[in-house]
Amino acid sequence: MHLLAHPRETRSLDGTWQAIPDQYENFEGYFEDFFDEEDDNPAGFAVKSIYEPGASEENDPCDFNIHDGRSVAVPSSLGEEIPEFRHYEGWVWYARTFDRDAAAGADRTFLRFGAVNYKTKVWLNGELLGTHEGGYTPFSFEATDALEDGENVLVVQVDNQRYEDGIPNESTDWFNFGGINRSVDLVEVPDAYVRNFKVESDLDDGTVDVSVSAWIDGADGDDPSVSVAFPELDRETALEPAGDGEFTGALRIPEAEVSLWSTEDPHLYTVRVEAGGDAVEDRVGLRDLRVRDGDVLLNGEPLWLRGIALHEESAGKGRALDAEDIEERFRWINELGCNYARLAHYPHTEEMARRADEEGILLWEEVPAYWDIDFGDEEVQELYRQQLRELVQRDWNRPSVAMWSIANETDHTDDTRNEVLPEMAEYVRSLDDTRLVTAACFVDETDDGLEIRDPLQEHLDVIGINEYHGWYYGDADNMQAFQEDPEGTPVVISETGGGAKWGHHGDADERWTEEHQAEIYRGQTKAAAENDQIVGFSPWILFDFRAPMRQNEFQRGYNRKGVVDQHGRKKQAFHVLRDFYQTQR
Ligand code: GCB
């Protein structure tokens, strides 16, 4: 199933919702009973006592009424909205009503969720529309048949418990912000509509080859006429049926007529896909990205990726970033002199990628296949593919996205993992073979120095390495000893760094001081610059972030490896990194 893409007018269901925690998971049965008996109980909504499920409205103590929750904003991270829910992990019922004007009614209506952490179950007017697992990617359900004229009642059960067979699973070094963390929209479309489309480009001897695929749903065997247009380039072409609702076409445009998208000049073009009575528009970039002779090339030119890693988190807002947060992130990224950012360890809001398109910042995007995933479990593998698919199909039109990362620090001595991860790399390529596939791997310390001993490396276009010389082990500047990979695959240092509490000062060899962290950055940046195989650097991390397993006196619930603290105050390492990037231009 392809994702319902976002570039069209929608009706937002963001705003004030009601939220009710259900820690003991009691209410689903009563809630469903209510709809069975709706005629007897027209005013309420699951108004049942847990002691007397059959009680009438008059004598019911009403332990649970979907309209009588706490008022919360959507999108939001629930624990940030209601302080006593800060560490809550369990079920929460969300509800809101909305009116539908039947006269303006479209043929078909979908409900689209930007991201809900972690499991979601959705009912509209008592009808179960669907379920979803995974906290960071969008999903949609068709609501056409459940919609009513006038008032509609939308109920969403959110479960933010951590699961052993989840992705991620129970153990992560980040905070588990539950809730409807991204926007909810009603999407209205005609009977036959453009579900998604993909624009790919590469350079071929002075020509920009552009290929376009569009997926049309609901045409019922009656092929509509489908076309794509790039108005600013004065180009248009028909897309031909390719089976299973897919339509494809290509354009060849002389390079001289095109402003290619690059980090220096991130030029975007409008693209418009029409199919019968439906049309969607987006802004895309035309560019050529590939790896050759150990380099990452953008439009044929080698690039050194001056990066930074970041989590999606904002003080007091959890994972529900707003426009101001996105603005602030790009201010820091630009101030550091970056041309690249690693969005760790899960898909961030798609607004980050849209902004990166405009700013000319290349992105590493990843799914939360992190640490100890149960790779042997087939259901977990299916969930893994689903999360990859939902991310790739969301962002495959974003020119900023350069790398899809399939995993972070998974055990390279585990045979099952070594069978499954190459399959996932191939799966990503089958969805999108115009970007580079990577993963954050470990490097092994041996008697001869550092070696990449991960069998996954031969399946990757770029090898990501997380190493903490100078912090967890070794000396910060010993990356010179890094062994050349025989294949010459380019390496990005996907993580390195050390912790420091903002404002804590001392000698450069005193842990947790800004001076110590800055010294690690001096050693690491020097080593990275001297190693030819390293083509990029995204140290850990832009800002301090909440991490339940970090509790010493300097941490108190935060991972302190930020070059900025959680309030936006810069540490000395920020300046070391910025100075280094001046020299890497
Ligand atoms: C890592 C992980 C990252 C942690 C970091 C740390 O290698 O990928 O999620 O937060 O180390 O601070 O130890």
Automatic annotation (TrEMBL):
It holds the Pfam family Glyco_hydro_2_C. Residues 192-287 form the Glycoside hydrolase family 2 immunoglobulin-like beta-sandwich domain. GO terms for biological process: carbohydrate metabolic process. The keyword Electron transport does not apply. Keywords: Glycosidase, Hydrolase. It comes from the Archaea. Residues 78-190 form the Glycosyl hydrolases family 2 sugar binding domain. One of its GO terms (molecular function) is hydrolase activity, hydrolyzing O-glycosyl compounds. Residues 290-581 form the Glycoside hydrolase family 2 catalytic domain. Belongs to the glycosyl hydrolase 2 family. This is Beta-galactosidase. The lineage of its organism: Archaea, Methanobacteriati, Methanobacteriota, Stenosarchaea group, Halobacteria.
